[in-house]
Queue: 2 jobs
Job 1
Amino acid sequence: MTAARSHDGPGPLRRAGRATGHALRAPFTGTARSIRKATHAHGAGESGLGKLIELHAVNGAGDVMITVALASTVFFSVPTDEARGRVALYLAITMAPFTLLAPVIGPLLDRLPHGRRAAMAGAMLARALLAITMSGAVATGGLELYPAALGVLVSSKAYGVVRSAVVPRLLPPNFSLVKANSRVTLAGLLATGIAAPIGAGLQMIGSAWPLYGACAIFVAGTFLAFTLPHKVDSAKGERRARLIVPHEDGAPSRPAPAEASGRTGSTRAGLRRGGGKAGGGEKPAKERPPGLRSVGGSVLHGLQANAAHRALSGFLIFFLAFLLREHPLAGQSAAVSLGIVGVAAGVGNACGTAVGSWLRARGPEVIIATVLGLALSVAILAAVFFSTLLVAALGAVAGFTQALSKLSLDAMIQRDVPEEVRTSAFARSETLLQMAWVVGGGIGIALPLNAVLGMSVAAGILALGAAASVRGLLGAARRGTPHPRVA
């Protein structure tokens, strides 16, 4: 009888338990399979881009957890005057040193071409440890919180620089760089949108809980970084980039490589524009080390325009945070006012990324000039006719134009920069853009809380960027490019 039972299969209780377990697991496993299918579509799984997309989603989720904890401690938990002092202290202790460290990040990471996976994992692990360090200080708001926040900021930017350098090595066949960056960016935005309310919920349990969550997320990211393909660490054919100033007409100065010209000290091979002169008894310039001879006027003007967008982003984050807390939008509370602008900026950023993926690399110079003009127009309207609608519109347009302008810059780097130095060019351009964000944030925290003045300064930032870049961008678009466009 016992033997007969053994062949009857599991009992009803066991079958019910298995069915219940399967029902409970199904939403999670189904969601995981759907996410994996989306991130690995169109060859991204085979090339390794899918894993980078997932890693960037983890990065975005962890960063927003730390942001929630810091914002609650430094900004929301104290009166406005005290909050402004705390944020000013935060900028002084974290942003000022970062301004000095940022120019070093790109060149330092250039020296680690064989350790990119380790660098990304290290940036994740450092933030995990720093999150635990900050968890003991968020309740008191002690000074030890700020050096740890600086470490988080530097680690986050270092990850961003390495990620930009890695993308070109993981492109699937027939995939443009702008499309790849769009997918990576969208994954980060979606993860941020999901993790932000979770972090807010953890904050209600205790001020340290979002940091515990960030630590767990970054530990997972540390292991995920090592699952990237080994070709990420390959530096075959790469050289370090050198950004050269173009001539007045926007055409790049293109010194002939020594190996092509047969000369090692000629004016064309060795001089930057505005440097020493050849002839006249002067010593010829030394041959430059192998590297990027010129990125061309398009990329440099695109970088100037993107710096204006980044400076605007930093400015609006800090200025509107205090302005709307002290002077909420008409008929709204401070929290709702901040939420309106934040959601508008997030939606605009996501839309810009989606449009950038659709446009791919079509006319990036014209796209950058157009979106810069659009942002400037809305900023001027917000300064002249300040209202709830226009402030929300400026947040949305700023997010939209920043995303689309950055994707267009990526497309120009892909098109104009030789492959052997492209990863280095990404690293250095990203460092410059982060510095622009720091400058804009500093202006935002120092400015008096006057709405018209603030919107005027925002328009001024964009006007400076337009004056420096639009003419060159449109001129380059009219002349065309000798480089083949990548679809």
Note: Confidence is low (pLDDT under 50) at residues 1-6, 244-293, 483-487.
Job 2
Amino acid sequence: MPQHSLPLAQIAQLLDVPEDSLRALIAARGDQGDTTLVGLTVAEAARRLGMGRTKLYEYVASGEIASVKIGSLRRIPAEAVNEFVARRLSASDFGAAA
């Protein structure tokens, strides 16, 4: 669990929530990974997008989402994940029924 600059009791008080609820929320989040990464593995990017690795590999192979090869490793720039979502949002027709 990450260290906080304020004790958890003070954070809960500032947020006006019970400390037990805040602790439960932190525990439920689990390991979110390093949000400061610039290049994500396909698994990390897929987790951020809420999809499977296989489907994301299809998007990488088709060029729908940018990726770069660094040595033998495939990495997806973190900003490419946001750009991919933005393109998908602008391309979708919100007026059509699913």
Note: The longest helix spans residues 78-91.
